Amino acid sequence: MWKWVSTRAARQRMRAAALLAGACMLLFLSACGSSSSTKNNAGGEAATGSAQSGDITLVIGAYSVVKDALDELLPSFQRYWQEKTGQKVVFQQSYEASGTQARAIVGGFEADVAVLAMETDIEKIQKAGLLEPTWKDNETSGMITRSVVALGTRDGNPLGIRDWKDLTRKGVKVLYPNPKTSGGAQWDINAIYGAGLKESERQTGTKDPQFAKQFLKQIHANVESLDKSGRASMAAFEYGVGDVIVTYENELRARIMQGVAYTIIIPEDTILIENPAAVVDVNAKKHDVQEAAQALVDYLKLDEAQMVFAKYGFRPVSAKAAEATKDQFEEPAGLFDISYLGGWDEVKDKLYSKKGVWYQVLAGI
């Protein structure tokens, strides 16, 4: 059974929550009702306002890319939950780069539900003892959306970009965010490195990590800037920085839907992105909102919610929604998933450890 919590109590415990993600961290809080919205300097979407009057408040800590879809889905869940239980749920939301958001939750931001870019960010919260290791023991392994890493160019693709190799050409200016702060950036780097492994396999019959490193190094040499999030990189690109942006396919589709002119290129070899959501058990239990928090995570996997995600360019995780939308999404010939790179544990060690491939590339080694 749920316990009814006053909005006043929710506001009190939200004010008490510490957000210790570093001096550069911006916390964006909004309600799913009347709120004012502004753009911050980094290109992220900021929202300010207080929660509407409700029976309980769910606090959502999410990565920036999913904001537009959740702006539609959270009010839908609100109606769904009220019809099912008679209880009105309202929301307070924070949107940041996935890695930054995970560190904030570990540091004291009392999110009840985490919606993040990748499994390893949820695992940071799990390892801090804030959620159960069984969070992915379900039919979608804890994932609520899929996508692929794609290339976005100026309208009409004036430089004739067709694949990853074109990003190594002299004078081609590339954008992707910083993998130290952005989960999306790690997907981008994984895609490029994996494409290098695929190419080496075609040429030699075996994966060549050194070839893949050099491939990543050649592309990175053309990178204009490393923004803190995928949304910030997209804002910079739309401001006029760069010729090609490496990002989620869904981000490009969503922007096109909003009237921004992009040409989308799906590389022949690219990675399948999988994005998780989980209840932050310790916080949800503390706030007596476990039932509603779990219901929200489950709701995001339902066919109706998956069709909304598809509208915003995500590839559905539910079989029925995937079948209904299959004509919308190109299937790359060389599509691979994280297991092709050895799984997240190996990727974290090989690519993102202090002596890993990514830091070697940064150092020019």
What does this structure look like?
With 365 residues, the chain is an alpha/beta fold. It is 41% helix and 16% strand. The longest helix has 22 residues, at 183-204. The termini are far apart.
**What is the radius of gyration computed over CA atoms, rounded to a whole number of angstroms?**
20 Å
* Proportion of residues in extended strands: 15-25%
Care to count the β-strands? 10
Catalogue the unreliable spans. Answer: 1-51
- The topology string of helices and strands comes to HEEEHEHEHEEHHHEHEEHHHHHH
Structural class label: alpha/beta
Helix content: 40-55%
**Which shape, going by the Cα principal axes?**
globular
Biggest beta sheet summary = 8 strands, mixed
Q: What is the tally of helical segments?
A: 14
Separation of the first and last Cα atoms = 58 Å
Query: What's the overall average pLDDT, rounded?
Result: 85
Keyphrases for this structure?
365 residues, alpha/beta, 14 helices, 10 strands, 41% helix, 16% strand, disordered N terminus
Question: What are the SSEs and their pairings?
Answer:
Blueprint: H1 7-16, E1 36-39, E2 45-48, E3 56-63, H2 67-85, E4 89-96, H3 98-107, E5 113-115, H4 119-127, E6 143-154, E7 174-175, H5 183-204, H6 209-220, H7 230-239, E8 244-248, H8 249-257, E9 262-265, E10 272-279, H9 281-286, H10 290-299, H11 303-311, H12 319-324, H13 344-352, H14 357-363
Parallel strand pairs: 3-4, 3-5, 7-8
Antiparallel strand pairs: 1-2, 5-10, 6-8, 6-9, 6-10
Helix pairs in contact: 3-4, 5-6, 6-14
